[in-house]
Amino acid sequence: xxxxxxxxxxxxxxxxxxxxxxxxxxxxxxxxxxxxxxxxxxxxxxxxxxxxxxxxxxxxxxxxxxxxxxxxxxxxxxxxxxxxxxxxxxxxxxxx
Length: 96
Known about the structure:
mainly alpha, 96 residues
C-alpha cells in the first residue's frame, strides 16, 4: 500500500508541476497579448487625438477668419455688439 501511495504522490507532484508550468506559460502569453493590445490601443488613441486636434485647429481657424471678415464687413455693428455684450457682462458682475 505504501508503494501505491508513493506512486500516487509522485503522479500528483508531476501533475502539479505540469500545472505550474502551464500556468507560467499562460501568464506569459496573456502578458504578451495584453502588451500588444495596449500598444495597439495607444496607437489608435494617438491617431484619433491627432485627428481631433487637427479638426479643432481647422474649426478655430475658420471661425476666426469668419469673425474677422464679419467685423471687417460690418464694423459699426461689431462695435455695437461688443459694447452691448460688455454692458451685459458688467451688469451681471455688478450684481455680485
